[in-house]
C-alpha cells in the first residue's frame, strides 16, 4: 500500500503542510502527504485573503525561494491591493482577496502535478520513534508508515475544542473532527505543550445584504501580483464593502456576555491581541462607539460572504441579533456562525533554526503547532521545514535565513529564541532591518539561495538575474550621466526644489525628496535609455527604490553587518553553560534551555545581558 | 560589544592623581589622535613608528586642553592587539573628562567595563587559562560600574530618563502604528503633534546633556562666594588667590558695594570667585542693597567661603558661629569652608581656640599669603571628590552623557526627516537608533515593547 520507506512524511495539508510537501518533493525527496481530509487541502480556515502588511512580504519571499503560495494566490485572486503605497518602499505590502474554493483547488492541482509526492487520507494518531529519532507515523487504522523525517503541521486540530456561546465540542475546524493522540505521545516523550485560542467570524448570504448602505472598497486600478514568475495580472476584480457597528449593536452583544466562553472563564488560553473578537473589542475599548466591519466576498461566483471584524464566540442567537442591527445587515441570513477554537501547541523554543525539534531527530514542526497565526506565517514555516527535512536526510547543510535576509528569518529566529505567549503574527516592526526586507527585492535576496539548494528552478533564477542586471545598468546610468540645468530646472521648479546652477549627476538630483522616476522619465536621455534597453515596470521600480533610498539602505546594511559579526561566532552544540560561574544565574538557565547556535542569537534571549555575552565570548575563545 | 568601534576609557583609577592615562583602542585610534595632537616638534602622529612616545598638546580646534605624552602602539603588538594610543595627561578629572569627551564627540565610544581586556583576550594576547579570570573581571567590573551608575542616578536623573524613554517609545509606537496598522480604524497623530513631541524630547535631551555634571560646572568656572563681615579681608584674599589687584581694597568697612567676579585657574580648573558685600545687618540703604545681592550670589554658588577675622573670634565667636549655622541651614547642599583670615595677628592660644570651636576651620593670612595654598587644595578636593553638584546637575556619568549625545543626534535626524516629508519607515530607522542609545542607560529595548505599547493603547484587529 505504501512505499517501504518515505524520505519525508508531512502530516497535515494546510498552508504549512502543502508548502512542506511541495518543497521536499520538488527537491527530490519521496514525500507522503497524510491528511484527515483530502477535500480540505489548502483550505483557508479564516478570511479569504492572502498577504497584508509584513505578511505580503512573506508570500513574496516564499515565492522567491520556490514555494507555491504566491502562484496559488495569483491564480485564485479576486482583488488585489498594494497597501501602504504612500509610505516608503519597505512598507509596500501586497494583499489579495481570494476565491476560497479556487484557492484550495489550485493547491490540490499544484500538489498533484508535483513529482515524488504521494497522498493518503487518514488521521495520524502517533509517531514511530526509535531512540531519539522519528522513523514514521501510525494512523488511526493502526497502519505504520515508515519515513526518514516527519513534518507535523496540525494547525488547530490537536485536541481542538470549538466554542459557540455555552456550547462546546471537539473539532479542528467547524464541521471537522479534532485530532487526538499526538500531543499525549509527545508530552510523554518530554515535550512541553500549551493551549492557544483563535476565532473566526460568521459567514453570511451575500444576497441578504444591502450593499447600498455600505462603503465600496475596490481593488487597485493597476493591480500587481505576488509571484515573480509569469502568473497573470487581474483584469477584473470583485469589490469588498465596509460598514460599522453601532452602540445598539454593542448593547445587543453585551446581552450575551454572561454566556460568552471568553468572559465566563471557559476559555482559559490566550488569543491574539491584534485579532480580537468583537466582544473583546467592545469590552476593552468601551469608549469606542463603532468598529469597522469588512464584507469580503468568498469567491468569484459564490454568494457566501465573510464578515471580517466580527470574530466572535458569543451564542449564535446573540451573533444573529447583533449582526442584524449592523447597517446593511438588516435582512442577514447566516451560512455559519462565528466560533472560537482552542488547540494544543508546542512552545517553539523546543526547535532548532531548521524547525527540527531538539528532542527528537528527524521530527519537524510547522505552522500553528508552533504558536503562530496566519496563512503566510504557516506557509513559510512549512516551506522551511520541508526544505530542511530534505536537506537533513540527504546530509546537506541546513537552510537557515538570517534576520537581515528575510522576514522568514525573523519569524523563525523569534520563535525559537523568544518563544511566544500569544499566537505570533508577523509585523514589519519585528524586523530590525525592514528597509532591506522589501517586497520588491525578495527575488534578489532569496532566489539565488532557493536555486542553490535545488528548489527554485532555472527560469526563476534567469528572470531574477535579468532584473538585477537591468536595474544595475540603469542605476549606473543615473550615476554616470549628467543633466544640464536647462533640462532639469523646470522639473525642480515645479516641485519647489532648489534649482541647480550647473550640470550635475542625475543620481544626485534623483535622490532629492519629491523627485520621482516619473519626473526623471521626462528627460529625453532617460526615456531613450528605457526604450533602448527594453526596461519594464519592475526594473524601473527597483532602480527608483535603490537610487532614492540608497542612504537609508546603506545605513541598515551597515547595522546588519555589525550584527553578523556576532552571527559568525558559533556556540558548539555540546557547550556546557553550568561551568560558567561568571554568567548570571538567569542567563545560565535560559542559555541552557534555548541552546542558541550563535552569540548573536544568545544576545536576543531575554535575561541575557551584554556582560553575559562578553563572558561567553571569552569562553568561546576567538 | 564586539563591534569595530574605536573605544576609549580612563586606564588609571578615576579621581585626581599626578597623571592619568587615557587609552584609545581600535581602527581609528591613531588617525583620530593624530588630528587632535600637536607635537612640539611638529611630527605627524599618524606617521610615527609603533612603540614610540611623543610630547605635545591635545587640542580641540584652537583650544589647548593639556600638555601630554602620547604613546603609540600598533596592533597586534599592543595591550588589546588593536591599534592603541595612550595619552598621559595631567591628573585632574576635569582634564581627563575634557579629553575623553573630545574623542567621544569625534566618534569614539566609551569602553564597556572590561572591554580592553576582552579585546586583549580575543586577539590572543592572553592565555586561554586566563579565561576564567577575565570573565570574572568582566562580570565583577560590570556589577561595580552598574552600582556606580545607580548611585549616580540621583537628583531625578533616572526619573527623567524613564520619562524621556517613554516619550520616545510613545513616539516610536505612533510611527509604527501608522506603518503596521495603517489599515486599522485608528486616528493617527498628525505631523504637528509629532513635531511638538520631538521638540519636547530634544529640549529635555539638551538640558540633560547640558547638565553633565563636573565637566559643565567646571567649564563655566565653579562659582565660589566669599562671604563675611565687611573689612574682614575678602578683597585681599581674592587678590591673594588672583595674585593681582583686582577688587577695591581700603580700610573703610563696606567699600565693596558691587559683587566682583574673577576667574582663576587652580590645578587646571577654573574657579569663579564672587566677592560679596558681606551679610552684616545694616541701616545703610546702599549697603542693604549690597547684602541683598550677596544672598542672590550665594544662591548661584557651588562653594561658600565664610571669612572671619581671627582676632575678633575671642570676642564675637558666638555670633560668628550663629551666622555659620544660618548659612548652613540656608544652603544645606553647598559645601561651606570657614576661613579665619589675618592669622598673622593671632597668638597660639587664639589659634587653638578657633581650631577647637570650629571644625575644619582654615587659618590663613591673605595679606602675607600664608595658608592660601591650603585653601586652594581644599577647593580642588571638592572638585575631585565630586562634591560639587547643584540641583540642576543630573547627568554625572560619561557613559550616560555619551549615550544622550548620540540619542540627540538621532532625534535631530528624525526632525530633519520630518521637515522633509520622509516617510515613517525611514524615520523609524533613526528613532530605533535613538532608543538603542537610551537602552545603553536603561537596559535593552526590544521591538516587543513597541507592539505591547500599541496593543495597550489602540483597538487593533479585524
TrEMBL record, chain A:
<dbReference type="InterPro" id="IPR036188">
    <property type="entry name" value="FAD/NAD-bd_sf"/>
</dbReference>
<dbReference type="GO" id="GO:0005829">
    <property type="term" value="C:cytosol"/>
</dbReference>
<protein>
    <recommendedName>
        <fullName>tRNA uridine 5-carboxymethylaminomethyl modification enzyme MnmG</fullName>
    </recommendedName>
</protein>
<dbReference type="InterPro" id="IPR047001">
    <property type="entry name" value="MnmG_C_subdom"/>
</dbReference>
<keyword id="KW-0520">NAD</keyword>
<dbReference type="InterPro" id="IPR026904">
    <property type="entry name" value="MnmG_C"/>
</dbReference>
<dbReference type="InterPro" id="IPR004416">
    <property type="entry name" value="MnmG"/>
</dbReference>
<comment type="function">
    <text>NAD-binding protein involved in the addition of a carboxymethylaminomethyl (cmnm) group at the wobble position (U34) of certain tRNAs, forming tRNA-cmnm(5)s(2)U34.</text>
</comment>
<feature type="binding site">
    <location>
        <begin position="271"/>
        <end position="285"/>
    </location>
    <ligand>
        <name>NAD(+)</name>
    </ligand>
</feature>
<keyword id="KW-0819">tRNA processing</keyword>
<dbReference type="InterPro" id="IPR020595">
    <property type="entry name" value="MnmG-rel_CS"/>
</dbReference>
<feature type="domain" description="tRNA uridine 5-carboxymethylaminomethyl modification enzyme C-terminal subdomain">
    <location>
        <begin position="547"/>
        <end position="618"/>
    </location>
</feature>
<comment type="similarity">
    <text>Belongs to the MnmG family.</text>
</comment>
<dbReference type="GO" id="GO:0002098">
    <property type="term" value="P:tRNA wobble uridine modification"/>
</dbReference>
<dbReference type="Pfam" id="PF01134">
    <property type="entry name" value="GIDA"/>
</dbReference>
<dbReference type="InterPro" id="IPR044920">
    <property type="entry name" value="MnmG_C_subdom_sf"/>
</dbReference>
<keyword id="KW-0963">Cytoplasm</keyword>
<keyword id="KW-0274">FAD</keyword>
<dbReference type="Pfam" id="PF21680">
    <property type="entry name" value="GIDA_C_1st"/>
</dbReference>
<dbReference type="InterPro" id="IPR049312">
    <property type="entry name" value="GIDA_C_N"/>
</dbReference>
<dbReference type="GO" id="GO:0050660">
    <property type="term" value="F:flavin adenine dinucleotide binding"/>
</dbReference>
<dbReference type="InterPro" id="IPR002218">
    <property type="entry name" value="MnmG-rel"/>
</dbReference>
UniProtKB/TrEMBL annotation, chain B:
<feature type="binding site">
    <location>
        <position position="255"/>
    </location>
    <ligand>
        <name>K(+)</name>
    </ligand>
</feature>
<feature type="binding site">
    <location>
        <position position="86"/>
    </location>
    <ligand>
        <name>(6S)-5-formyl-5,6,7,8-tetrahydrofolate</name>
    </ligand>
</feature>
<keyword id="KW-0479">Metal-binding</keyword>
<keyword id="KW-0963">Cytoplasm</keyword>
<feature type="binding site">
    <location>
        <position position="23"/>
    </location>
    <ligand>
        <name>(6S)-5-formyl-5,6,7,8-tetrahydrofolate</name>
    </ligand>
</feature>
<comment type="subunit">
    <text>Homodimer. Heterotetramer of two MnmE and two MnmG subunits.</text>
</comment>
<dbReference type="InterPro" id="IPR006073">
    <property type="entry name" value="GTP-bd"/>
</dbReference>
<dbReference type="GO" id="GO:0046872">
    <property type="term" value="F:metal ion binding"/>
</dbReference>
<keyword id="KW-0819">tRNA processing</keyword>
<feature type="binding site">
    <location>
        <position position="235"/>
    </location>
    <ligand>
        <name>Mg(2+)</name>
    </ligand>
</feature>
<dbReference type="InterPro" id="IPR004520">
    <property type="entry name" value="GTPase_MnmE"/>
</dbReference>
<feature type="binding site">
    <location>
        <position position="125"/>
    </location>
    <ligand>
        <name>(6S)-5-formyl-5,6,7,8-tetrahydrofolate</name>
    </ligand>
</feature>
<dbReference type="InterPro" id="IPR027417">
    <property type="entry name" value="P-loop_NTPase"/>
</dbReference>
<dbReference type="InterPro" id="IPR005225">
    <property type="entry name" value="Small_GTP-bd"/>
</dbReference>
<feature type="domain" description="TrmE-type G">
    <location>
        <begin position="221"/>
        <end position="384"/>
    </location>
</feature>
<dbReference type="InterPro" id="IPR025867">
    <property type="entry name" value="MnmE_helical"/>
</dbReference>
<dbReference type="GO" id="GO:0030488">
    <property type="term" value="P:tRNA methylation"/>
</dbReference>
<keyword id="KW-0342">GTP-binding</keyword>
<comment type="similarity">
    <text>Belongs to the TRAFAC class TrmE-Era-EngA-EngB-Septin-like GTPase superfamily. TrmE GTPase family.</text>
</comment>
<dbReference type="InterPro" id="IPR031168">
    <property type="entry name" value="G_TrmE"/>
</dbReference>
<dbReference type="InterPro" id="IPR027266">
    <property type="entry name" value="TrmE/GcvT-like"/>
</dbReference>
<dbReference type="GO" id="GO:0042802">
    <property type="term" value="F:identical protein binding"/>
</dbReference>
